[in-house]
Amino acid sequence: MKKAFAIVLVALLAMTALMASGASEEAATVSTDGSTSMEKVILSLAEQYMADNPGVNITYNPTGSGTGITAALEGRCDIGLSSRALKDSEKESGLTETVVAYDGIAIIVNADNPVTDLSIEQIAGLFSGAITNWSEVGGADAPVVPVGREAGSGTRSGFEEIVGVVDSCKYSQELTSTGAVITAVSQNPGAIGYASLASNLDSVKMVTVGGIEASEATVKSGEYAIQRPFVFATKTDTALSEAAQNFFDYCVSPEAAEIITAAGAVSIH
Amino acid sequence: MGIKEFLATKGYASNPRRLMEDLIHLVFLILGLVAVGSVLVITIYLVISGLPAIVEIGPIEFLFGTRWASTAREPEFGILPFILTSIYGTGGAILIGVPIGFFSAVYLARMAPKKLREMMELCIGVLAGIPSVVYGLVGMTILVPGIRVLFNVPDGASLLAAIVVLTVMILPSVINVSLSALDAVPREYEEASLALGATNIETYFRVTVPAAKSGIFTAIVLGIGRAIGEAMAIMMVAGNVANMPSLFSSVRFLTTAIASEMSYSSGLQRQALFSIALVLFLFIMIINAILNMLKKGNQKI
Questions:
Q1: Which of B140, B241, B266 sits opposite A174 (nearest CB)?
Q2: Quick check: A167 and B69 CB within 8 A?
Q3: How many CB atoms lie within 10 A of CB B110?
Q4: Residues of chain B where predicted confidence (pLDDT) is lower than 70
Q5: What angle do CA A268, B71, B278 make, to 5 degrees?
Q6: A130-168 tens-digit pLDDT
Q7: CA distance B98 to B95
Q8: Cys-Cys crosslink for B132: which of A117, A245, B5, B232, Cβ 3.0 to 4.6 Å?
């Protein structure tokens, strides 16, 4: 009796395994891997594309720009996602970059902070420790608490390069997600931080940079200074699979512009 | 040799039940080897992937360097701040958590009414089951702003916040292990002491506690093990800047150093993170060795 039960169980397991593998063979899979900042954009694009093209399955692995680029290079995914331009060393190792969208990096302060506008120089001073009190930039007499992202984050390297504070930031906190930065800034009256324009910034105050407010229009026109590209990294000498190439073409086509905009980023079109 | 002959040589043909017994035996052996195999694979993997960066950076510079700037143009990989932070953080949590946990255990084991003990044990069980990310979340939204206001510092995300979170996290294991050690002390010891005219308190601290000594040490070492290995909760409250540790500065532990940079790391930075893991692994091995020695000591009593 027990034996019979065991045989049935094994047969069932074998059948599920067969069915599972059969199903994945029918659908073409396009794997993407990389930047967590691009999550909203890539998931919106994938959702729309999968709805339009049944039988195609697009996966997204939120690992970070560095990991995504490595994954693309090692062939572990079809398209690597990076929220920074590829380094020369990465291009030399056999990758091509294609800009799909732009992202503005918003400078955020606590909602109770009276400061409304900062210049790039002031922002650099606030993060590098040259300015330690808000009264120096027209705010209240309170210590400045710079909150940033961890080393290797695309948002961090994007911000530091544009503002010119690479390796010289005196952070008070280094947090591992945009959400954590926003939470930390919303809780500390002296805090200043940076976050992707695509994220939800309701609980904090966004300052204008050199008098220009961060918005889709100002990022696209290039007026707003603190912005970075969203990049697809693909292997230079190996062609994408047919499904991956189709998805790639869709993402850079004018059709996708609306979806990219809805996801909070700025389309190239 | 066909299957039939093979079965016959082993005597299975005449005794099918023995075949079943041996098969099951084999299955259990394989299952047992899963744990052993995992430890081996992890150890070998950590050594292989952790050593290259240590060799490249230089063991002295790696272990005793005071500056960590992994993505700078001229990167520096000194992990002394992380090692010291882990030691201070764990030490602080032990310093605060062990007395609290130990006295709670003495109270629960010897003084508390039965109903109250049951209720408190239930609470401790719940405390032990709370996921560490929840500790981090509460710490981040209540403790960090609280420290900022209470001590009038610019930012509350600090070593102190991490110590407080770790203290609460190690309490359940310290209390539970101390409690079972105290419960295991024979009643006769205490009765003898009381009969000699000692008060209750004298009896608890002069007779019961010394008898449960090695169990209590085990509790402390378990607490250290839990505290030094924790990452998620302290990542949310400690600020994660690679400063040399001081009570109100933003600090990074060995665990959070790995966790916070791993997702975006590449090249030597990634290798160095594996080296940090190797150092952390050695710490844990030492703690486990101490724990095993204590357990052997326990058996002698």
A1: B241
A2: yes
A3: 17
A4: 1-2, 4, 7-11, 13, 264, 298-301
A5: 125
A6: 999 999 998 899 999 999 998 877 788 889 988 988 888
A7: 6
A8: B232
d(CA B252, CA B59): 20
pLDDT at position B135: 94
Taking contacts as CB-CB distances below 8 angstroms, the residues of chain B near A129 are: none
Which chain A residues touch B70 with a CB distance below 8 Å?
A: 151-152
Whether the CB of A61 is below 8 Å from some CB of chain B: the reply is no
Instruction: Give A35's pLDDT tier (boundaries 50, 70, 90).
Output: confident
Token readout for B260 is 């916070």
Among the four given CATH numbers 3.40.190.10, 3.30.1460.30, 1.10.645.10, 3.40.50.11810, the one describing domain A103-227: 3.40.190.10
**Tokens 């002390």 appear where?**
B185
Q: How many CB pairs under 8 A join A and B?
A: 89
Looking at residue A204, its pLDDT comes to 94
- CB contact set of A269 (below 8 Å; sequence gap of 6+): A254, A257
- How far apart, in whole angstroms, are the C-alpha atoms of residue B265 and residue B68? 14
For the domain spanning A2-101+228-267, the CATH number is 3.40.190.10
Q: What is the pLDDT of residues B176-185, one digit of tens each?
A: 999 999 998 9
Check residue A261 and give its pLDDT. Answer: 83
Provide, as residue numbers in chain A, all residues whose Cβ is less than 8 Å from the Cβ of B240.
150, 173-176
Mean predicted lDDT score pLDDT of chain A: 86
Q: Search chain A and give the residue with CA nearest B234.
A: A175
In chain A, residues 103-162 whose CB comes closer than 8 Å to chain B: 143-145, 150-154, 157
Query: Residue A229 corresponds to which amino acid?
Result: P
Say whether pLDDT at A13 is over 70. Answer: no
Q: DSSP state, B10?
A: T
Domain locations in chain A? Answer: 2-101+228-267, 103-227
What is the secondary structure of A67-86 as a DSSP string? Answer: HHHHHHHTTSSSEEEESSPP
Joined together, the tokens standing for residue B61 give: 């510079």
The arithmetic mean of pLDDT across residues A24-38, rounded, is 79
d(CA A184, CA B101): 31
Amino acid identity for residue B118 in this structure: E
| Nearest chain A CA: its distance from B247 CA (Å) | 14
Q: Give the separation between CA A109 and CA A203, rounded to whole angstroms.
A: 10
Whether A146 contacts A155, CB under 8 Å? no
Contacts of residue A188 in chain B, CB cutoff 8 Å? 145, 148, 154-156
- Alpha-helix residue ranges (DSSP H) falling in B142-212: 144-151, 159-183, 187-195, 200-203, 209-211
Equal fold, A2-101+228-267 vs A103-227: yes
* Contact residues, chain B, for A36 at CB < 8 Å: 263
